[in-house]
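REQUEST
  id: r-88c1
  op: predict_structure
  target: Putative HNH nuclease YajD
  payload:
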Amino acid sequence: MLLLSGQTDKYIRFYHTKAWHDARQETLTRQHYLCQDCLRDGKITVAKTVHHMVPLRDAWDKRLDQDNLEVICLEHHNQEHPEKGSGNKKYFKHEAAVKKRSDVFKFSSNKDDDKLFW
Ligand SMILES: [Zn+2]
Ligand SMILES: [Zn+2]
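RESPONSE
  id: r-88c1
  status: 200
  body:
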């Protein structure tokens, strides 16, 4: 169970708003799903992450500003957020996937338990 401060909660809620999904989609389309950092190095890398160049906590007003958004690959994104530690994102994704699977498993085994014990 994660305990989140009010501020963190605000940022997480933001990522679930339609306004963000629209802004993110616009950035992806505008930048053709290509990591802008890789592009600057002359590399073509397809990516689906949209990054706030000035972080949300420093520029809440720019959260939907296209000038503050860019497509970024996972590798570059981890470099942009050293405070998260590299690979953290992958770890969380993995955790979520495992959790989903065990929920499904629990659900079906609970059914059997119901028959046996209730
Ligand atoms: Zn990149
Ligand atoms: Zn970012």
